[in-house]
Amino acid sequence: MENRYLVHVIIRKDKKLKDGRHPLNLLVTLNGETFRMNIKGKRLKADEWNVKKRKPTSNCKNSSLVESELNKEVAKVEKFVLESNLKNRTITKEEVRNFYYEKDLKYDDFFTHYDDFLEKKFPNIAETTKKPYELLKTQLKEYRDYRKMKVLTLNDMNYSFISDFFHWVKVEKETGNSGLATRRKNLITVLEEFVKKDLIRKNYCKQIKRFPENEKDVFLTPKEIRKFKNADLECGKKTNGLEFSRDLYLFGCYTGLRYGDIMELEWKHIKDDHIKKVQQKTKKLVSTPLLPEAKRLLKFYKMKGLQGKVFPHRANATLNRDLKDIAGMAEINKVLTFHSARHTFGTILALNKVTPFHIAHVMGHSDVRMTSRYVNSNDEILGNIMKTVSFQN
């Protein structure tokens, strides 16, 4: 949007100083909003100013010099607005004031507050959760430079800028819907904190339409879990690795633990038929009841005499590669990742009529709404519910 503007000099006849002179102001109309800015050190008597021509009269000493200096003040503001138009950047009166008075823009710098946000948030979140925030910051800086903006201010975070940013990330960075959805979620979180602190009035990122997920959350049905568990994994030297990956995945299905929490799991976390552990991602203590299937796996690895950690380390990338092979051997036509084990756990609980509240509690969700994906993910659940519906009294 091009900024519409008009700038000229006025005399403040409503303000008379002790020496009988009146201050001169710049009267600025910007995008339909009019405001005044004091011109430092410029004061004239009423008869020294021509109101109609908006310039000093002959009664003013050095009138030509004064007129030239005033024209420079007008040109200074006009140049700032014109440069903003060339950058296709909508500006506010606050930005014009800050520019004209040469205020320190550090307070309005978006990244100053972004860094403050990260400093306070990072101690409470996992390393894997930090990376998307750091990537968002990097790409916002790259986009700022792409737009040739000297500084990205809080006022710049309007709908137009944010919408254009996501388009740039999608096209220039070749980012898919999943990545765009993560950027949107993180930026909403950041801006929501800014709203709470009265740094900005509105979180425009909320108005950005949700990016559709490329695929629905993948999970295994009870029948597929049996096929996965009983598949013949004989594959030469790869057999032991595939079997270990299968055990880890099944343990995730039986407990709902994330990859990072399983890799960090120690024997001391297992107490009274529960896993009691602070989640790596949320930093919250979660108590997960142990199902018989999970107990059998724990007993098997306990017999191996491992100290400290329950399971040996296995890279997430290796697990995901193995899961692709195991799914093929089990004739399961789904693209499995290790995180789908957690979705499987939640879905199986819902299938067994566990309430969303209790699913959220066991999985460590802070909001029951996060559990809705499991309740709505299985046609069998809905089918069983519909069987109980009757229009008969």
Count of alpha/pi helices: 15
Share in β-strands: 5-15%
Sheet/helix structural class: mainly alpha
Segments where pLDDT lies below 50 for 5+ residues?
none
Roughly what is the average pLDDT, rounded to an integer?
Answer: 87
**End-to-end gap:** 62 Å
Q: Residue share in helices?
A: 40-55%
SSE sequence, one letter per element: EEEEEHHHHHHHHHEEEHHHHHH
What are the key terms here?
mainly alpha, three-stranded antiparallel β-sheet, 48% helix, DNA binding, Integrase_catalytic
Walkthrough of the structure:
By secondary structure, this protein is mainly alpha-helical. It is 48% helix and 11% strand. The protein contains 15 helices and eight strands. It has helices spanning 63-86, 93-100, 110-121, 127-146, 159-172, 177-196, 222-230, 239-255, 259-264, 292-302, 316-329, 340-351, 356-363, 372-375, 379-387, and strands at residues 5-11, 22-30, 33-44, 49-50, 55-56, 270-271, 274-278, 285-289. Helix 8 packs across helix 11 (316-329) and helix 8 crosses helix 12 (340-351). The chain is elongated and about 105 Å long. The two termini are 62 Å apart. 22% of the residues are buried. The mean pLDDT is 87.
